[in-house]
Specification:
The protein has helices spanning about 5-25, 30-35, 50-60, 75-85, 95-105, 105-115, 120-125, 135-145, 150-160, 160-170. The protein is mainly alpha-helical and about 180 residues long. It is globular and about 45 Å long.
């Protein structure tokens, strides 16, 4: 690369950085604040997303989860609660259908994940990847694909990150959020 090309590239980066800084320095618009804080509508209008209903759907996909007797946790409600807390208010109404579509779309990948990291696998025998095979994991994986930053943020507030880190490694999401 010539010196003038290098200088032009450097100026381009400086301009990009300056524009980004200017954008980030601007106060948020009332519309974006309403979406960041939740809908501006009455909280009573936000559809309920019942954990038991979501779990019932997740348990229907027997090829993606292991039998109850072979699960690491008989009650993974803490994991499910954190996963569902990353579902935005605007997504709640159609979330169960979205979860079903996610599982169908990623069926082969989920089967591979279960075979490679689920109960009875070599990695699982070392005490790692305990979430693989849990029905709650379907919600976590869907959130990992849909809104990984929100999931990571909620997880770090509530649970040990090693479980999410292991699942993230095994699933191989588009971006890696662990440190």
């Amino acid at each position: 690369m010539t010196r003038s090309a290098s200088a032009t590239t450097g100026r381009g980066r400086a301009v990009s950085s300056a524009l980004l800084l200017a954008h980030l320095s601007q106060p948020a618009s009332p519309a974006s604040k309403a979406t960041a804080d939740g809908p501006a509508a009455d909280p009573a209008s936000v559809p309920l997303l019942e954990a038991k209903d979501v779990l019932a759907v997740a348990e229907r996909f027997l090829w993606a989860v292991t039998a109850p007797g072979t699960r690491y946790w008989s009650d993974g409600s803490d994991f499910l609660d954190v996963g569902l807390s990353a579902v935005g208010n605007e997504e709640r109404a159609g979330y169960i259908a979205r979860l079903e579509a996610f599982v169908e779309e990623h069926r082969a990948r989920l089967e591979e994940l279960l075979c490679a990291y689920g109960p009875g696998s070599t990695p699982a025998s070392h005490g790692r990847y305990a979430l693989v095979g849990q029905p709650e994991t379907l919600v976590i994986l869907e959130r990992m694909e849909t809104c990984p930053l929100a999931l990571r943020s909620r997880w770090e507030q509530e649970l040990e990150t090693v479980f999410l880190d292991d699942l993230e490694f095994a699933w191989g999401p588009r971006i890696c959020l662990s440190r």
